Amino acid sequence: MSYKNFPMVPRVIFGRGSFNQLNEILAPKRLSINAPFIYLVDDVFKNNSWLTSRIQLSYDDKLIFVSSKEEPKTSQVDALVEEIILLTKERPSGVIGIGGGTLLDLAKAVSIMLTNNGESKDYQGWDLVKNEGVYHVGIPTISGTGAEVSRTTVLTGPDRKLGINSDFTPFDQVILDSELTKDVPTDQWFYTGMDCYIHCVESLTGTYLNAFSQSYGDMALELCKEVFLNGELPEVESQEKLMMASWHGGMSIVYSQVGVAHALSYGLSYLLGTKHGIGNCIVFDQLEEFYPEGVKLFKEMKAKHNIELPKGICADLIDEQFDIMIDISLSLEPLWENALGKNWEKTITREKLRELYQKM
Amino acid sequence: MSYKNFPMVPRVIFGRGSFNQLNEILAPKRLSINAPFIYLVDDVFKNNSWLTSRIQLSYDDKLIFVSSKEEPKTSQVDALVEEIILLTKERPSGVIGIGGGTLLDLAKAVSIMLTNNGESKDYQGWDLVKNEGVYHVGIPTISGTGAEVSRTTVLTGPDRKLGINSDFTPFDQVILDSELTKDVPTDQWFYTGMDCYIHCVESLTGTYLNAFSQSYGDMALELCKEVFLNGELPEVESQEKLMMASWHGGMSIVYSQVGVAHALSYGLSYLLGTKHGIGNCIVFDQLEEFYPEGVKLFKEMKAKHNIELPKGICADLIDEQFDIMIDISLSLEPLWENALGKNWEKTITREKLRELYQKM
Q: Are B264 and B141 in a shared domain?
């Protein structure tokens, strides 16, 4: 038996307003005046000087706004890397991702592709990365994905949606400043928060679970319930707790896996470009038979916050399109095995998946 | 406001039997054949080939058995460092601590003192360490202290009992193999486990608490209750959960502090050499007025496991001895402030402390 030797984020700072410490944290990491810091920032913060004025651009440092309207793509990573190489005289001192899961995953992937040859699609999979990436920092501005702590960066490539899982993927530094999440719109707050809730349910009910992952998953789930279900937490406390839920939820996956919801939502996202958070919600809403208690609570939370999920997103699809989603979904074997055990193929047939997708 | 940028253990492996992966983990860290690995192992494992046969000594690697009968001392660290320097041709490739809090703290301190001049007492305090220590690995064989994850190594020096708190203190690698805890005697298991329980109570009721530390503390406390109070967990599950409790309990202190129990028990330990785990229990048993609920549960757990604490350990002390303990205890200002707020000095007088010590 061989256990994963998990790389943890080696530096973390937590606190309301800790974003103000960014420049001080980066300063000693500057390799030379020709080796800039590259900031990848969600373009919702364009013209938001409350945030951007606190980013000190020195020498050749660049701030690049990136849209998170779509899921991150391998082609987008490759284009960003090319742009950065053209813009800079030397290999950057660091890449700083500021945003949600999309921006965090892009920052992780760009950091890796600045020091590894070829295209990012070549590294989708497990432990294919050869060289350490450049120093990279993650600063979440919405909570739930766990991307700030995970060992992967999930990208949609030409052939598949799959992570670059490697020891070089995790951030070197994370800044957890819950104040950055204060202006997230309610629906987005819910979808992204539910990403955490759903992967905790999947992890905690899965066959891969051990005491390490269970303790993190239990904690994250409790925090999600406090934020979304039980009650009327003061705003700041709610933001802080959801940020911790996301962090612990990400840690819960270390010795575990996600399950049915993620396996199906990857199909949606590959074919239809459905964003991860809302996609998980659309799928999970239909999974009573797999996660009866988890789905019941989910529906309560949805009702409590007046969330209306899109309906009929698969209504007009043709056979070939269902087949594409089903292929993607079935290819995610570890997720199915975690959810249903070694004999998952006995119950998860193409017909079964089609039937599920047709409900969405 | 400036928040601590906390250094986390960058690599962790969790699993029953993961100790078998030690040699494979160390191999790539060997700097040269003249730069050995130094294993500091609790001498309870002398002649225990189940454990020692799995440590592969190559080239000039040394295994040094160390007694954990007494709390670790600065003089002991300095003597170990001198011994290691005399034994080795080059600076060691790594120091591996195998044991409880005493061995883990010794390994951390030795690692630091191999690369920093002077005596270890000079580094007791906060951020006095100048140079990164040698690569160091922590392998707990008993659960509760949190030393495997903390940013300190608590040593008794000529003048005080105080930690070497620094960014270079945390381990570079931790191996969490609960099987190594299987032969711990019941009383020791209880005392060390209660170290975790007690510092969670202190952290969770303290004034320094934030959402980060609270989430870790809540989780650790829940796990302690599962292990010590609720019930009849299967042995392996109980060992695994207590190992995770210790880990999370250590993390809980990151943005928090311990409190009254630790402040008083440091005095006992300085004067009488009382070991940390049992010392905390002796003190905590008398702290109803500070931690009513925590002490109530503690007494239940003590009863459930038929633990008899030593009584009257301060019965024969003279005034000068009480004064020494009181001085040590009062010097730990952050602990008092965390426990009782900025005005702690109004209630914590020398008379009050003497009265408390006299009950023990």
A: no
Domain match, A175 and A219 both: no
Is the pLDDT score of B1 beyond 70? no
Q: Do B215 and A219 touch (CB under 8 A)?
A: yes
| Domain end marker among B120, B148, B181 | B181
Domains: count for chain B: 2
Asked whether the beta carbons of residue A244 and residue B215 sit closer than 8 angstroms, the reply is yes
What is the per-residue pLDDT across A65-96, written as a single tens digit (0 to 9) for each?
999 999 999 999 999 999 999 999 999 999 99
Query: For A150-171, what is each residue's pLDDT tens digit?
Result: 999 999 999 888 899 999 999 9
CA atoms of B3 and A340, how far apart (whole Å): 43
Residues of B with CB under 8 A from a CB of A: 1-15, 17-18, 21, 25, 173, 176, 178, 210-212, 215-216, 218-219, 222-223, 237, 240-241, 243-245, 248, 255
Report the C-alpha gap between A299 and A308 in whole angstroms: 11
User: Are B92 and B120 contained in the same domain?
Assistant: yes
Contacting residues for A267 by C-beta, under 8 A, at least 6 apart: A324, A325, A326, A328, A329, A353, A357
Model ipTM value:
0.94
| Span B222-270, pLDDT tens digits | 999 999 998 789 999 999 999 999 999 999 988 899 999 999 999 999 9
Side-chain-facing half-sphere of A5: CA atoms under 13 Å: 19
Contact residues, chain A, for B210 at CB < 8 Å: 14-15, 240
Report the residue of B14, B137, B251 to disrupt the A interface, i.e. the one with the largest count of A CBs within 10 Å.
B14
The DSSP H or E segment spanning B248 is helix B235-252
How large is the average pLDDT for residues A218-247?
95
B25 contact residues in A (CB cutoff 8 A)? 5
Q: Which of A12, A214, A215, A253 to mutate to test the interface with B (most CBs of B within 10 A)?
A: A215
Q: Give the chain A residue nearest B241 (alpha carbons).
A: A211
Structural domain contains residue B60: yes
Domain encompassing residue A244: 186-358
Kindly report the pTM of this predicted structure.
0.95
Distance from the A33 Cα atom to the nearest Cα atom in chain B, whole angstroms: 25
What is the overall mean pLDDT for chain B? Answer: 96
Whether residues A219 and A76 fall in one domain: no
> For the domain that residue B286 is a member of, what is the CATH number?
1.20.1090.10
CB A243 within 8 A of CB A193: no
Per CB-CB distance under 8 Å, the chain A contacts of B3 are 13-15, 17-18, 21
Give the residue from chain B lying closest to A5, CA to CA: B13
Query: Which among B181, B208, B234 is the end of a domain?
Result: B181
